[in-house]
Amino acid sequence: MLLSAAPADAQAPTSMAMLPDLPATHHARKVLGHDLMRTPARIGAKYFYDQRGCELFEAITRLPEYYPTRTEKALLQARGADIARSVGPCTSLIELGAGNCEKVRLLLSALQPQCFVGVDVAGDFVQAAVERLAREFPGLEVCAVEADITAPVALPARIAAEGRLVFYPGSSIGNFDPDQSMTLLRQMRTLAGAGGGLLIGIDLPKDLQVLEAAYNDAAGVTAEFNRNVLRHVNQCLDSDFDPAQWAHVAFFNAAHSRMEMHLQALQAVQVRWPGGARAFAQGERIHTENSYKYPLPLFLQMLTQAGFKACKAWTDERDWFAVIHARA
Q1: Residue 231 contacts residue 246 (beta carbons within 8 Å)
Q2: From CA 20, how far away is CA 308, in angstroms rounded?
Q3: Is the dihedral of CA 266, 267, 272, 276 positive or negative?
Q4: What does the pLDDT look like over 12-33, one tens digit per residue?
Q5: 292-301 pLDDT per residue, tens
Q6: What is Dmax (Cα atoms) for the chain?
Q7: Which pLDDT value is given to residue 24?
Q8: What SS3 state is found at 167?
Q9: d(Cα 290, Cα 288) in Å, to the nearest integer?
Q10: Alpha-carbon distances, residue 87 vs 90, 92, 116, 128, 326 (angstroms)
């Protein structure tokens, strides 16, 4: 079913709710500098997503090796009617880490919400995406919110508190350590509100070769995506990283059931920023991303611990990916 269209000359309301750009704040700069001084050094995954990083990630999702996006999309298409029945009436559909808002199109058609809210740390990118949705679904009220979803998300007051469905696709929950994931799930429970719910995608454990190929594509797009984080850090911290001095490294850590991405110094490197500096030896790494692969029963337990109930899950025919609806 499609949304009923507004008259051709009607203009659907759109807005952009601007929140502070966290990477520019003093606190965020301090945290970023502290993380670069750790052993091993770290860069938070949110720094992947400047404009160029968002474009590169879109390219990754189209690669033959990268199965998660097409597997989840096919699952949403195949089980859309079942998902809609499980969710029930939906007033506001809120996508966290919305990016290009591509997957939510399938849900808009099935759920027919009154309002869509796209939340992303890349404000300009998500603003453009929700504007495209407004043109495609002229009867839909849309709103873009620039925010770091690792902190509680404040929505505009006009977004109804009742009938909310929080949508978090792409197995992005796997980018957080388990304790962080629990905190984030509890924040989602609060955002959904009484009577609301969560629709979340998770990547399941699978063959090692399939996993590692997805993060080491032959075209080198993931490597460029990984190195681009240094350009974004330079902008945020006024540092002097040279991405050409770093190599992309990705592998599966079986002990933690996660894929890891790192940047490895190709030579001895000295990096400076206002108030700090670090010398990296040749071969030293910066840890840039984790992607946990949770067994479905374990993740259902996590949802229960976060305060959700009545969970229903759908998986693809290979059990590579799961989409879960959980009631708040």
Answers
A1: no
A2: 30
A3: positive
A4: 444 444 333 444 578 889 999 9
A5: 999 999 999 9
A6: 63
A7: 55
A8: strand
A9: 7
A10: 7, 12, 15, 28, 9
Q: How far is CA 272 from CA 240, 279, 287, in A?
A: 6, 9, 18
Q: Are 261 and 249 in contact (CB under 8 A)?
A: yes
253: left (phi over 0), alpha (psi -120 to 50) or beta: beta
- Measure the CA angle with vertex 270, ends 266 and 276; round to 5°: 140
Tokens encoding 299: 């993740």
> What helix, strand, coil percent values describe the chain, rounded to 5?
40, 25, 35
Coil/strand/helix, residue 162: coil
Q: Which residues of 76-108 are buried (b: 16+ CB within 10 A; e: fewer)?
A: beebbeebbebbeebbbbbbbbbbbbbbbbbbb
Q: Is the per-residue pLDDT at 232 higher than 70? A: yes
Position 6 pLDDT exceeds 60: no
Cα distance between residue 100 and residue 81, in whole Å = 23
At residue 264, φ and ψ (nearest 5 deg) are -115, 130
- What pTM did the predictor assign? 0.86
Dump the DSSP string for 204-252.
PP--HHHHHHHTS-TT-HHHHHHHHHHHHHHHHH-----GGGEEEEEEE
